[in-house]
Amino acid sequence: MKFITIAGPPSCGKTAVLIHTIKRLLEDDTKVAVGKIDCLETDDGERYKDLGIPVIVGLSGDLCPDHYYVSNLEEILTWAKKNQAEMTILETAGLCHRCAPAIVGCLSVVVIDNLSGIDTPRKIGPVLTTADVVVITKGDIVSQAEREVFRQKIRLVNPEAEILEFNGLTGKGSVRLRKILLESPEVHTLVDETLRSSMPACICSYCTGETRIGNSYQLGNVLKIVS
Amino acid sequence: MNNLVTIKKITILGGYTKDGMEEPIRKMDITTGEILVLVGPTGSGKSMLLSDIELLASADTPSKRTVLINDTMYEGCRSEIIAQLSQTMNFVMDTTVGDFLILHASSRNIDSDAIVNDVIALANTLAGEPINPHDFITTLSGGQSRALMIADIALISDSPIVLVDEIENAGIDKLQALQVLSDKGKIVIVASHDPVIMLMAKRRVVMRNGGMNKVLSTNQKETELLHELISFDKNMFSLRESLRTSGTIEIA
Ligand SMILES: Nc1nc2c(ncn2[C@@H]2O[C@H](COP(=O)(O)OP(=O)(O)O)[C@@H](O)[C@H]2O)c(=O)[nH]1
Ligand SMILES: Nc1ncnc2c1ncn2[C@@H]1O[C@H](COP(=O)(O)OP(=O)(O)O)[C@@H](O)[C@H]1O
Ligand SMILES: [Mg+2]
Ligand SMILES: [Mg+2]
């Protein structure tokens, strides 16, 4: 089984990139299963089901979607095995950029779009720096110069990754991405594998449902902007 | 000078039309310094062919074409050798023209001081209203943006292969624009509906139903006609400029 994570900010094109690439994988009869983690709501499950492949959707509700995602990795792998998948692709919620639920030993893809601003590569942290493959979308709507500068900014924070330009509307780039996915490592279990970077420390009163504002309600791990 | 390989030619090996028939043109060489125009009705496959070239396709796109550089499969990074320009592209970065060009030049390891003025001066030969280094790039007009993109591709990107998808309606001096782009021995491939651009190139590919249907060389008669069209076009351009800058037309 190949287990691949695909992360990136909301609306950067993760689902568009995956749909085009999965279509290519299906041409070779590769058995693909997709998991989608989100927080409150997502239509992505339906979009993947239209491809006629097994899909599992997890909504984290009141929990942090990235913590929820890590807590369910083994369950998703087991589900995919039951569905005879050869490749499991997991789309993350992509809500905050602090977490990078990339897994050591599994291919990690990050999607980032040309519209997100020139400083984004520097700002988004582990999700970009720990990725094996950086997919850049929406090059069809910005200038050649901006594409070049954006690519170079990505190169600066992640010198190792393969950078791939992709058009999420036409699927341009999907053949190359298919090849990369097909060459990704095999895993049998995720138990005892590790994350490539740690999640932020938290557990304060707001994590457990507190809604009131003020020092006296803030218990646990609390950091102040001015000390 | 910042290109790692010298590109001498592109070869397109024919694939299939939208109906899965072999496209009539089986092999097409385009050599350095040439401007090639793609013509054909909307939906005939011009953008698809440009996309195949951009991807340096190897029988792995819907058309199943193969694109070779200097007779071989290109192994390097294609974004370093191919620049693109289309009607849908806009500037999105929140910065001034001057700062933007400095940023782009430094990303290409080009000394930025001199080049900034060169790019702006070149852009200003293409568009009506002059561009200023202090203008924000996102506030430039359509024509100014296109002019700046062209000058920037010509001087800073300096990619040996330039792909242009239908920019004739952008309010720029299109002939001058093509001249600027094809300068310095680049290969320029342009999809166009504009007869002046079609006849300006020595050869044009006629697209039909997704396939390369014919390659035509511009003939004597067409070249003569081109001169008429160009002066017609120049009149249109100066008339437009004149009317735009409060000129009037009087009975002679
Ligand atoms: N112009 C353009 N739009 C794109 C591209 N890739 C994705 N989109 C659009 O961006 C929007 C968000 O895409 P989606 O795949 O849902 O993003 P996700 O939230 O990361 O999964 C959709 O409207 C896509 O059609 C691209 O390369 N170019
Ligand atoms: N050789 C081909 N095989 C399969 N589909 C094609 C081929 N050429 C073009 N198409 C498809 O036909 C449609 C129109 O082509 P396009 O290149 O956008 O035309 P144009 O730019 O001339 O208007 C697109 O969806 C494109 O993907
Ligand atoms: Mg999505
Ligand atoms: Mg087109």
From TrEMBL, chain A:
CobW/HypB/UreG nucleotide-binding domain residues: 4-164
Alphabetical list of PANTHER family matching this protein: COBW_HYPB_UREG NUCLEOTIDE-BINDING DOMAIN-CONTAINING PROTEIN, HYDROGENASE PROTEIN ASSEMBLY PROTEIN, NICKEL CHAPERONE
Lineage: Archaea, Methanobacteriati, Methanobacteriota, Stenosarchaea group, Methanomicrobia
Descriptive protein name: CobW/HypB/UreG nucleotide-binding domain-containing protein
GO annotation terms (biological process): protein maturation
Pfam families (alphabetical): cobW
Highest taxon above the source species: Archaea
GO terms, molecular function: GTPase activity; nickel cation binding; zinc ion binding
SUPFAM superfamilies: P-loop containing nucleoside triphosphate hydrolases (SSF52540)
InterPro entries given in the database record: CobW/HypB/UreG_nucleotide-bd, Hyd_mat_HypB, P-loop_NTPase
TrEMBL record, chain B:
Claim: Nucleotide-binding is one of the keywords in the record: yes
Keyword RNA-binding: no
Keywords: ATP-binding, Nucleotide-binding, Transport
ABC transporter domain residues: 5-235
SUPFAM superfamilies, per the entry: P-loop containing nucleoside triphosphate hydrolases (SSF52540)
Family annotation (Gene3D superfamilies): P-loop containing nucleotide triphosphate hydrolases (3.40.50.300)
Source superkingdom: Archaea
Listed InterPro entries: AAA+_ATPase, ABC_transporter-like_ATP-bd, ABC_transporter-like_CS, P-loop_NTPase
GO molecular function: ATP binding; ATP hydrolysis activity
Family of the protein in this entry: Belongs to the ABC transporter superfamily.
Protein name stated in the entry: ABC transporter ATP-binding protein
